[in-house]
Amino acid sequence: MSLKEQLQSDLTTAMKSRDELTASTLRMALTAITTEEVAGKQARRLSDDEVLKVLTREAKKRREAAEAFSGAGRDELAQRELDECKVLAGYLPAQMGDDELAALVRDAIEESGAGGPQAMGQVMKVVQPKVAGRAEGGRIAAEVRRQLGA
Q1: Can you give the residue range of the structural domain that contains 80?
Q2: Rounded to two decimals, what is the model's pTM?
């Protein structure tokens, strides 16, 4: 069963059990996936990796919205966004720990022979494929900057 089919199946289950939060979150995710499928010149079917990228992007939007709502004193809306993010997190790969990320970055610096902050792009090119959605780009960039002394 593909990830999209799993989402559709879980949506049906959530609707039958009257779980409004999960149902609305999965509807939103499936809409984003469908939009991505029909974007461009020709409609296509997304692979599981592409679906994961869409879900990761949607989860990031939820986290950013929660921060904005919290900053504006709208705690009930911030909590709703965080709850939606938790639903999406159930479909995403487990996030990488700080120690594991630091070790990957250290290895990438050695592999690329980078030295100094100007080599950040080289290191990011090596690290990104190895991380593969298990850490946000901002977290990766911060760790690379820290280890390069920028």
Answers
A1: 3-89
A2: 0.76
